[in-house]
Design a protein that fits this description.
- The complex is a heterotrimer of chains A (397), B (289) and C (274).
- Chain A is of the alpha/beta class.
- Chain A has 13 helices and twelve strands.
- In chain A, helix 3 packs parallel to helix 4 and helix 11 crosses helix 12.
- In chain C, a hairpin with a 2-residue loop joins strand 2 and strand 3.
- The chains are: A alpha/beta (397), B mainly alpha (289), C mainly alpha (274).
- Chains in contact: A-B, A-C, B-C.
């Protein structure tokens, strides 16, 4: 045991001194952009497209000569949806890789732990996660931004619609993950503002495969609409189970369900479901006059070409984050504080929804324009659902 | 009458899930009888079965063929798993074996992630998706398929152990391995067979529910644990016990999420597990070994 | 393992810690070392149970979580002094371990493994579901850093000394425990429970004590973890982490008290941490 201890200690010390001696600074250093995504593990469906997107964008900008002539280097780590890992990743990016700014992480809880580091190190962080808690209270979270729609906005969009339809009673069924819990909180707090009463309030697990008990309970209420808040395959099962149980009320999904995969999984049950989401999901059906159509088209083309798969709105969060960061660096140079100010003052960015914080108003949106567009699922594709188009849903309800 | 409606619906949901837990529980019991190993990779067989069948169905759209193909592939996987991962370490302590089978489970779900990716896939229902009305409840034809074929498999299994020579030999091995070996039975072959058999059962369960639950690479872990809880509840090693345990856990879960709180649904199976372990570790119908 | 042998490694260990503190200049490595130190605490505790007493626990992450959440909730939500919250966390985890241990430790092998696993999963679900208290799956933030008087341990290098000092004390304590009356009883029952009983050892009591003891280590580690990261979420205390801990113990080499914390850095370093 004696020798073993000594050997290990020696190895440790030797290892550290080696690492330290290797830490010399290079002369023409590239701008380092850090990325922390849940590339593997339970949330890999978010992290993988985000990583792919960041890699693609960095390769693209370097091919074009970098930002103001300086090459860009992306250092991307996998947090595996793990708080401890994400924290270590962040420390490493800041102290070892000297990242100018960090994009990610993919999830609310990993973002919350990473921002502890970035706040202290005064490094801009652009999170790709949904939770409102990441950027509020704004007076404290000075260095944090995020590109994913907050649940706050999505909920408001849904409730506006319900109010317009003259509905007053809703049932909600939410997933018990960070995404679902945060959404549930928003649904509960905003309901009264729109004159809505929540008559059924159920939850389901991320990996649950049968929601009929919860939905049966909802069926017993007099809910006029059901709102489902979830990601991954579970929302599709909610849709299927509702069809099985013979629901006649409308189902509204969150932006977490905005993918073609949802239609594939839910099959016929997807017909007529409504949801708020970024425009990427349906850009092909947008009118050519919509400035966002071109952005979505460019991103989708690039992604298709490189990865032989359609772009997803999750990757879109990283796409927006990178572009906003790029604009800020072009304007402010490679200085953390200046970049932060530039991000906060981003104007006229055309892309996904972009939320930032502002010294005075919390979570104020910096960019005018439609945040969450409104869609209707059709068995074969997702359609934009303008208020004019909502006749079909009237008929259903 | 007012409350009967939802109750019946919970029951249908519970029995359907319970049937799958029961098939998994039987897989645990068969292997346990043959080797006294708990194979934590049992849930992954369900996942592999579902995903293989989905792939076969996409190659050639025939459900019976996809079913057979899925079961065949997974049976082979089960046989190989025993031969390559477990036979070399048979006599290790339970702790090492737990780690090895959990490692196996990790390996299978990782492998599935590499083959099928992280997306979920759907399998069309065996006969239509038009809901049937049953008193105040609605159910899908697939619910009937799951329960019906589940019962059939259990009966076949019972008959296999009771009436066929191989089945009798497997039972002999589980009663006393030494004596069976002395009687000239190929014990190793029987052990391997038990892994194949339980893999086949798991795969069949996975394919049966795939139209209801979708197939995804990480579906196995929770199913495996619930199936194990079911096996413990019924009595580890007992066929009747496994069936009973599976159905009870399925129904308890559905009732809990319908009547109490859906957030604690997964806790129910494990709460039952704890209560049974603490009060009656031999299970409902098991005898103390 | 006599005292003559032990004197050296402990001194070396302390010297090593001081040396590392002087040589390392990067916060990332300190954070990494802090996490390793915390995991080492967990592993040393689990090793007492697994390596010495031969009792399996697949639910140790729950005790880790109970310590972390008690400290986190008391300090972040109720503004209690961290040094007061820490012992409360120990009590909570200790009581939980006692309540589970009494019925569970009558079981053996797979049955004990499953009972602890079930307990771990239930606690994990409770962390997720009691959102008013724990913040739910999105986690609990705003946990203050530890401080010694007015000296705040809010940077990884300052915390490093504290965590490794605690680990040092715990290692010495554990080595002594193994040589104590309880330690001998525990080792005896690992070999053969009937034999130990026939020698007059109250095996159940010994198992229970060592189970609670190792849960206390886990809670201590949890409390330190909460104050190190200033943020906790249920996902850190799930079933897979319990399995990982058991793997760390086995990889670290079970039989000796000091050893597993050496297996641990290897495991961590081998996995893409660097």
């Amino acid at each position: 045991m004696n020798g073993k201890v000594m050997g290990t200690l020696l190895a440790l010390i030797l290892g550290f001194s080696l690492v330290l001696s290797g830490c010399g600074t290079e002369k023409q250093a590239p701008i380092v952009i850090g990325g922390i995504f849940s590339i593997t593990g339970p949330a890999s469906y978010l992290g993988e497209p985000e990583r792919n997107t960041l890699q693609m964008m960095v390769a693209d900008i370097n091919a074009k000569g970098g930002i103001k002539g300086r090459p860009v280097k992306a250092v991307i780590y996998d947090s595996e949806a793990n708080v401890t890992k994400a924290r270590l990743n962040a420390e490493k990016l800041i102290t070892k890789d000297k990242a100018l700014a960090i994009i990610g992480p993919s999830l609310t809880h990993t973002s919350m732990t990473v921002l502890e580091v970035t706040q202290k190190a005064k490094t801009p962080l652009i999170s790709c996660a949904a939770g409102v808690g990441i950027v509020s209270p704004a007076s404290e979270r000075v260095w944090v931004f995020k590109t994913a729609q907050t649940d706050q906005m999505a909920v408001a969009r849904i409730f506006q619609y319900l109010q317009k339809q003259g509905l007053t009673k809703v049932a909600i069924i939410t997933v018990s993950t960070g995404f679902g819990v945060s959404g549930k909180k928003q649904l509960e707090t905003q309901a009264s503002k729109y004159g809505l009463e929540i008559v059924g309030n159920e939850v389901f697990g991320e990996k649950d495969t049968d929601m009929t008990p919860q939905l049966t309970k909802i069926r017993e209420t007099d809910a006029q609409a059901v709102i489902c808040w979830g990601t991954g395959p579970a929302p599709a099962l909610v849709a299927k189970n509702m069809k099985q149980l013979g629901f006649t009320t409308i189902l509204i999904q969150s932006h977490g369900a905005a993918s073609k995969k949802f239609i594939e999984l839910a099959g016929d049950a997807a017909d007529g479901i409504l949801l708020p989401a970024g425009k990427l999901a349906i850009f092909k059906q947008l009118p050519d006059t919509d400035p966002e159509k071109k952005v979505c088209q460019t991103y989708d083309d690039m992604y298709q070409k490189k990865y032989k798969a359609p772009a997803s709105s999750f990757g879109g969060y990283a796409y927006d984050a990178f572009n906003i960061l790029k604009m800020a660096v072009e304007k402010a140079g490679a200085d953390k504080a200046k970049v932060r100010d530039a991000i906060e003052n981003t104007k006229n960015y055309v892309g996904g929804p972009y939320i930032s914080r502002d010294g005075k108003t919390e979570n104020r949106m910096k960019r005018p324009g439609p945040l969450a567009a409104w869609y209707r699922f059709h068995p074969s594709r997702i359609l934009p659902n303008n208020p004019v188009l909502s006749k079909t849903t009237d008929k259903i309800s | 009458m007012e409350t009967l409606g939802p109750l019946l619906q919970y029951l249908i949901s519970g029995l359907t899930n319970g049937a799958i837990y029961a098939l998994i529980a039987l897989g645990f019991s068969i292997i346990y009888n043959a080797t006294t190993i708990i194979n934590f990779a049992q849930g992954e067989m369900v996942m592999l079965g579902a995903l293989c069948a989905i792939s076969f169905y996409h190659l050639y759209p025939s459900l019976p063929l996809a079913f057979l193909g899925g079961v065949a592939v997974v049976t082979l996987v089960g046989l190989l798993f025993e031969r390559l991962a477990l036979r070399p370490v048979r006599d290790q302590s339970p702790l090492i074996l737990i780690i090895i089978t959990i490692g196996g489970a990790d390996f299978f779900s990782g492998l599935a992630m590499m083959i099928w990716g992280k997306e979920a896939y759907s399998l069309p229902p065996f006969t239509g998706s038009k809901p049937l009305h049953f008193f105040s409840a609605t159910l899908l034809p697939q619910n009937l398929w799951v329960v019906g074929l589940g019962i059939l498999f259990v009966l076949l299994l019972e008959a296999f152990f009771r009436y066929t020579l191989v089945g009798k030999a497997m039972r002999a091995c589980s009663y006393n391995r030494q004596a069976a070996r002395l009687a000239g039975l190929p014990v190793n072959r029987m052990v391997q067979l038990s892994f194949g058999l339980s893999a086949a059962l798991g795969a069949a369960g996975g394919i049966l529910v795939a139209p209801l639950t979708l197939g995804i690479y990480d579906m196995g872990a929770m199913l495996g644990l619930k199936g194990f809880s079911a096996a413990i509840l019924g009595g580890l090693g007992s066929i009747l016990g496994g069936v009973l345990g599976g159905l009870l856990i399925g129904v308890a879960e559905a009732l809990a999420s319908g009547l109490i709180s859906s957030g604690y649904r997964d806790a129910v199976a494990f709460l039952i597990l704890l209560v049974v372990l603490f009060l009656r570790p031999q299970g409902l119908v098991g005898s103390r070994r | 393992m006599s005292r003559r042998y032990l004197a050296n490694p402990w001194l070396l260990f302390a010297l090593g810690v001081i040396l590392v503190r002087l040589v390392v200049a990067n916060d990332y490595y300190f954070t990494l070392l802090n996490i390793i130190g915390i995991h080492a605490l967990l592993v040393v505790g689990l090793n007492l149970l697994l390596g010495y007493a031969g009792q399996i626990s697949l639910g140790h992450a729950a005790f880790f979580g109970l310590g972390a959440y008690t400290s986190g909730i008391l300090t972040a939500t109720y503004g209690v002094n961290p040094w007061l919250a820490l012992p409360v966390g120990l009590v909570v985890a200790g009581v939980a371990a006692f309540l589970v241990g009494v019925p569970a430790l009558k079981l053996r092998g797979y049955y004990l493994a499953m009972a602890t696993l079930g307990f771990g999963i239930i606690v994990y679900i409770i962390f997720n579901q009691t959102q008013e208290l724990t913040g739910g799956p999105s986690g609990l933030s705003g946990i203050p850093s530890l401080s010694l008087g007015s000296f705040s341990l809010d940077s990884p290098d300052r915390l490093f000394i504290l965590i490794w000092l605690i680990l040092w004390v715990i290692l010495i304590l554990s080595a002594n425990l193994v040589d104590s009356r309880l330690g001998r009883a525990v080792r005896a029952l690992h070999e053969s429970e009937p034999a130990a009983q026939s020698l007059g050892v109250n095996t159940f009591r010994a198992k229970l004590l060592i189970f609670v003891w190792s849960a206390l280590y886990a809670a201590l580690a949890g409390s330190l973890y909460a104050h190190t990261l200033n943020f906790i979420a249920p996902s850190s205390f799930g079933f897979m982490f319990s399995i990982k801990l058991v793997t760390m113990v086995v990889v670290g080499g079970m039989p000796a008290s000091g050893d597993p914390c050496w297996g641990l850095p290897c495991l961590r370093f081998c996995r893409n941490s660097w």
